[in-house]
Amino acid sequence: MQELRELEVLVRSGTPIIVIETHEEQRALAALTRLAGQLYKDFQRWSVADGLVAGGLSMADEEAQFTEPEEVLQHLRRRSSRSLVALCDLHPFLREPKVVRLLRELAQTRDNHGQTLFLISHRLDVPPELSRLVARIELNLPSDEELFDIIREEARAYSEQNVGRQVRTDRTAVRKLVANLRGVSHSDARRLVRTAIFEDGAITLDDLPEINQAKFELMDMDGVLTYEFDTAVFSEVGGLDNLKAWLEQRRDSFVQADHPLDPPRGLMLLGVQGGGKSLAAKAVAGLWRVPLLRMDIGALYNKYHGESERNLRESLRLADRVAPCVLWMDEIEKGIAVGDQDGGVSRRMLGTLLTWMAERSSRVLLVATSNDIRQLPPELVRKGRLDELFFVDLPSPAVRGDIFRIHLEKREVDTSGLDLDRLAEASEGFTGAEIEAAVISALHRCHRDQRPVADTDLLWALESTVPISVTRSEDIQGLRQWAKQRAVPA
User: Fold this and answer.
1) What is the percentage of the chain residues whose pLDDT exceeds 70?
2) Mean pLDDT value across the chain
């Protein structure tokens, strides 16, 4: 195991404190047990429930000793023993000055007592006083071969519990399942596979969306990132022919890990509010059949210094773990814009994002949407950072007719008796969102009167609406002028 070799190097080099952040405590303890055997050292485990016990095992028939953190640290300071000591879930006590001081003294005198301390927790923030005395290590995530083994083991367990029944699947479904399980721990992967199999005795492509959602919930980001379960298909998006063709050309290079061409890295959708940018971002993930993660720019910001940048780093790290996926940053100018009115937070956030965009090797397609790209720094939107910049303008007459058809059929309305060309002409200057709102308004009117919708109802709804092309005409004209020489029409 790679992590076992890394742990051995750290112990042999005299690192006094090693932090292991993981939800797989038992797996970490098992690795330390093996390490102690290789190094001919004793191994002890401490927790507030069991106290200090030998061999990493709970001593249920004996009275727990040294259950308080200060007690066990004082005990370790008094003795001399070439041993490995795992301190489980010590993180709540690292706010206590005396605990921090005792850890520091143990670390500074490590050469005298010979003990290596391992702090094991799901998450652990090291106090500044200990930062130079600590090394961090992560347990390896399962490889594709290990994931295949987990699937085989769970399928065998299902067959043993249900005599005579074999798990129904095929090679494509299993391969897709393995790809979707990348980035989770061994125990979480086993739990997800078991759920998929035991639900209906099969592994199918229909299981993947639910597995992706469950997988993302295991990687909780406190609302900063959300998993979009229902992704749109491009049949629900009117127009955008250039964007559709661009995505079709690059689909295989993104989805296939062994494709000879470089995968796309990101694109920007610039346009009028309500023009369909958000729907298009969702449709990218639906077209490519990959998870869609939406980043809430506002939720990134925190009142404490440095926390906003940390939230962004953790979000990007999580996206890397979920890859291949689409990372949707909606209205990006609200969080990363030009200016220092926020004490430089936006600038630091921009630096974090640019570093990730330049250095990442994971297949994460960044899809950013913006209503006013002039607020964004030029280094973010240049070629190399993003593959393409698309401008989503107000829909043409043909596209408006298509949008009417899409939203009416979506609500089970027969469009054969409607004059879509007339409706398209009457909705000049309307966005897709405004057309949808007109359809909904007309349907409510007809439902009240208990009759089918007619052209006159839709025309009435259009006449009752003042489109954004009228209320914000100057802004839209300026946006069009900016995009004319700088963006590709979507």
Assistant:
1) 92
2) 83
User: What percent of the chain is modeled with pLDDT above 90?
Assistant: 17
CB under 8 Å to 356, separation ≥6 — which residues? Answer: 313, 316
- Its pTM surpasses 0.85: no
Rg (CA), the chain: 29
Distance CA 284, CA 117 (A): 47
Residue-wise DSSP of 470-482 = HHTHHHHHHHHHH
Give the pLDDT score at 303: 45
The arrangement of strands across the sheet holding 42-47 comes to: 51-54, 42-47, 83-88, 116-121, 17-21, 134-137
CA distances from 19 to 15, 33, 76 (A): 11, 16, 18
Highest mean pLDDT among 179-188, 290-299, 304-313, 398-407: 398-407
CA distance 189 to 24: 12
Classify residue 72 by its DSSP letter.
Answer: H
Largest CA distance in the chain: 90
Task: Please state the φ and ψ torsions of residue 364, each to the nearest 5 degrees.
Answer: -120, 120
CB 430 within 8 A of CB 394: yes
Contact predicate 169/203, CB 8 Å: yes
* Number of Cβ within a 10 Å radius of residue 374: 12
Query: Side-chain half-sphere of 436: how many Cα atoms within 13 Å?
Result: 15
Q: What is the DSSP track for 348-401? A: HHHHHHHHHHHH--S-EEEEEEES-GGGS-HHHHSBTTBSEEEEE-SPPHHHHH
DSSP 264-297: P-EEEEEE-TTSSHHHHHHHHHHHHT--EEEE-H
Residues in a beta bridge with 19: 119, 136
Contact indicator for 289, 278 with CB cutoff of 8 Å: no
SS3 assignment, position 106: helix
Residues, the chain: 490
pLDDT digits (tens, 9 = 90+) for 62-71: 566 888 999 9
CA dihedral defined by 281, 286, 287, 291, rounded to 10 degrees? 90
Burial 80-119 (b: 16+ CB within 10 A, else e): eeebbbbbbbbbebbeeeebbebbbebbeebeebebbbbb
User: d(Cα 192, Cα 199) in Å, to the nearest integer?
Assistant: 11
pLDDT per residue as tens digits for the range 176-221: 888 778 778 888 889 888 888 888 888 888 787 778 777 777 765 5
Distance CA 390, CA 386 (A): 11
Q: Give alpha helix (H) positions in 109-170.
A: 110-113, 144-161
Whole-angstrom Cα distance, residue 189 to residue 90?
Answer: 27
DSSP single-letter state for residue 303: S
Alpha-carbon span 490 to 483, nearest angstrom: 11
